[in-house]
């Protein structure tokens, strides 16, 4: 299973847990509401809700969540209850996202370097491209070490690159790492 699937499952579990705690009952009873809420919530990775990405339009609000034959709530009361539940789920989902982001931000520390430090440069493996004598996944993930010759901004640095890399822009902000980070997977200059 990949990270995206794990993240989706974690989100759905959080939503189910919230529904069961707030509304009671079995989790499977809330599944249609959870599915609707998830598919119509904004996803930053795609810039819209999954429903909107799939169908090219926003979803119309549901009219009936109950099974055919259930006459517990009808008409405007049903619509109001459903709308309230969706709004509550979306508020809880946003609170969960904010909480998880704050946890991640507490553990995340940006790397800072000084002029004169030697760093590794992370390179992305490209399918079918031969880099440093290796192809694809076998190519080294890090090259270097390179000396930092100038700090451009809070997280941007100019590196002294060898002549072989003269076609590569020499300012980096997100691809430099401590030498130890890539020790086992390095193409040395």
Automatic annotation (TrEMBL):
Pfam family, one: SH3_Tf2-1
Tf2-1-like SH3-like domain sequence ranges: 116-173
Record SUPFAM superfamilies: Ribonuclease H-like (SSF53098)
One GO MF term attached to the UniProt entry: nucleic acid binding
Record InterPro entries: RNaseH-like_sf, RNaseH_sf, SH3_Tf2-1
Record protein name field: Tf2-1-like SH3-like domain-containing protein
Organism this protein belongs to: Mikania micrantha (bitter vine)
């Amino acid at each position: 299973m990949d990270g995206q699937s794990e993240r989706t499952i974690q989100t759905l579990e959080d939503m189910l847990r919230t529904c069961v705690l707030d509304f009671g009952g079995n989790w499977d009873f809330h599944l249609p509401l959870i599915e609707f809420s998830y598919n119509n919530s904004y996803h930053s990775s795609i810039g819209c809700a999954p429903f909107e990405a799939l169908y090219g339009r926003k979803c119309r609000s549901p009219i009936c969540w109950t099974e055919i034959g259930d006459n517990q709530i009808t008409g405007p009361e049903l619509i109001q209850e459903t709308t309230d539940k969706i709004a509550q789920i979306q508020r809880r989902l946003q609170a969960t996202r904010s909480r998880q982001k704050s946890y991640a931000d507490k553990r995340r520390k940006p790397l800072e370097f000084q002029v004169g430090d030697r760093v590794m440069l992370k390179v992305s493996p490209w399918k079918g491209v031969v880099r440093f004598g290796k192809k694809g996944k076998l190519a080294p993930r890090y090259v270097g070490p390179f000396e930092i010759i100038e700090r451009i901004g809070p997280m941007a640095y100019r590196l002294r690159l060898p002549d072989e890399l003269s076609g590569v822009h020499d300012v980096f902000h997100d691809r430099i790492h401590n030498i130890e980070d890539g020790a086992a997977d390095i193409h040395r200059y």
